[in-house]
Amino acid sequence: MKKLLLCLALACLATVPALGSTIILGNPPDSGSGNSFPFGSAYNAEYQEAYAGSAFNTGPILITDLYLYNTQFNSGATSTPSGTYTVSLSTTSVAIGSLSGTFSNNIGVDNTQVFNGSIQQAWNFGNTLDIHFSTAFAYNPSAGNLLVDVVGNGINAPANIYYDVSSAGPFQRVYCPFGQACGTGVADTNGYGLVTGFGYGAVPEPGTLLMMGTGLVGVVGVIRRRIL
Fold this sequence. Notes:
alpha+beta, 2 helices, 4-stranded antiparallel β-sheet, 12 strands, 6-stranded antiparallel β-sheet, Jelly Rolls, single chain
């Protein structure tokens, strides 16, 4: 039975897309600058940042992680904020530069919650924040721009962390002033936003998915025969 279970695990692993690639949007960062919204301060509100699909020099991908960098401004913070963050991704048809201050108007029909929890951890200047998704998001850059939606609840920050930003990036953000919940956010009109990394893997081809299904059916059949 142990050998059969091992075979089943290997069959699954053989069809999982390889991970480990990262695309970073917004480099180079503005020198000596940064911004604490939404993951570096007591931001208890909704925040959105849209990234141009044309900036992704990839085909369809499965996004598994979001990375933020703290290389330009040292605030002396020793811990990330506490509280709960809810992160969702979607493919938006809204153009970069045209985001609405009404957050719901920017969200795509494939909106998917990818993370809900705490990011609290010890921190040193130069660290990278890795928000690992519980659910991977399938994104096709040719279908529209990528929208990251963040909602903070019960967020407390002993000291602000100022993540790297760019004032000429392929993105646009919408935020609530002072990090307090608002009905209508402020949509920046320029390319200012967080330098953001996305960890991703390739979307499995239909043939790969068929192979996975066939392999699992075969292994289950063997297990049933052994049991019977």
